[in-house]
User: What shape does this take?
Amino acid sequence: MTAIFITGTPCTGKTTIASRLNGHLIKINDVAISHDFVLGIDEDKGYKVIDIEKLSEYVDSLSQNCDELLIFEGHLSHLCDGGDKIIVLRVRPEVLESRLKGREYSDAKIRENLEAEALGVCTAEAYDKYGDKVQEIDVSDLAIDEVVDLVEKIINDEVTCPVGEINFMDWLISHP
Assistant: This one.
C-alpha cells in the first residue's frame, strides 16, 4: 500500500494532523522507544539519541509488508526508508515560538527549534533523501480541518505542494 511520512519541527501539528487521517497511525518516537532504538541521552541537550539505521530498517520493513495506508508521524520519520510521500508541516517561527513556550521548552531548545524551522532543516533533509516525493505545507494560518483536507488531497494526488515555496529566512536575519 502506501506509507506517508508526516514530519516537521516540534509543535508544527504533526500529531494533531496525523491522528485525524484515515490510515494506520504509527508514531516514530514510540517505535524508537518500544523497540529499544534509543542509544542514550545527549547530555548537553537532553534529547534521546536514536539509532536511525535500526529505526529506518524497521520502518521500511513495515512499509514493505503492509496492505493498508500507513501514516508515520514524527520529526525523525523523513530520515527513515520506506516513504511513498513525505509531507513536511511548516510554521512561521513567530507562531512556532509561542507553541514551544506553551510546552515549556527551555530557551535554548526554543532557539534551536526556531532556527531549524527558519532554515527548513526537516524539508532539506527530507528532500535530500526523497527528492520530489516531498511536499511542504505552511500551516501557520490554516485551521486543523484545512490542513487535514490538504494532506488528504496530497495523499490522493489531487494537489501538490512542492518544496521551495516556503521561506522563513527573513526571521533568522531579523533575530540574530
Observations:
- The two ends are 45 Å apart (CA to CA).
- The longest strand covers residues 85-90.
- The beta strands are 3-7, 24-27, 38-41, 48-50, 70-73, 85-90, 134-138.
- Residues 100 and 110 are 6 Å apart (CA to CA).
